[in-house]
Amino acid sequence: MTYCVGMLLDAGLVMLADSRTNAGVDNISTFRKLTVFQRPGQAVFVMMTAGNLSLAQSVTGHLKEALEDPQEGRPGLFDVSSMFEAARCVGDAIRAVHARDATSLDAFKMEFNVSVILGGQIRGERPRLFNIYPAGNFIEATGETCYFQIGEFKYGKPIIDRVVNREVRLQRAAKAGLVSMDSTIRSNLTVGPPIDVVTVKTDEYRVSSHQVIDAEDEYFRLIRARWGEALIQAFRDLPDPDWL
Length: 244
Prior knowledge:
Layout: E1 3-9, E2 12-17, E3 20-22, E4 28-30, E5 34-39, E6 43-51, H1 53-68, H2 83-107, E7 114-122, E8 128-132, E9 138-140, E10 147-151, H3 157-163, H4 170-187, E11 195-201, E12 209-213, H5 218-237
Antiparallel strand pairs: 1-2, 1-10, 2-11, 3-4, 5-6, 6-7, 7-8, 8-9, 11-12
Helix pairs in contact: 1-2, 3-4, 4-5
């Protein structure tokens, strides 16, 4: 399984994705779920995928082929003029993979399951963030809902809900994302490091930083330990119910 979270802030974008896949408790592998497409100074796109790994890789491959070999009716990401069109381009790639593979999957009673978070900025626009569904349709992040999650998101949602809004700094959002990732890792064995953490600053039109964090990363170990200790202490400090 997977956990990915993308956050749209006034300062830019923060995108986090784990890299664990598994087909049972004795078959665990590492595959990257985050892909960057960029032309510095012009446009940057950060794409994260969840669901069936082969379908996710096919969608990513379809987009890469469109960049390398543009064809009529199949524009590449750098051919679009807006992030809305970029989201449509990814949705079209999902539909193309569905048209090719869905019947075969159905014959084996396998669900067509792939989801995408796409964030980025094209010169002349503000940064934008989209959640793209298996049917290729999508929704866009707003001021009220400034983040999206895909995969095993339920364990890491509370911290994002409590501390992330459009005004927070990139550093704080990244920290919240890592705490959210830690909460998910602790509760679900199908999510695990290495963790890709990408930031994009508003109006830079390129990836500002890309960190790959493994289980032994000093900062990740620090916040995991301190967050756990803080939760335990906060729980101890809460009053017991007077009706027991």
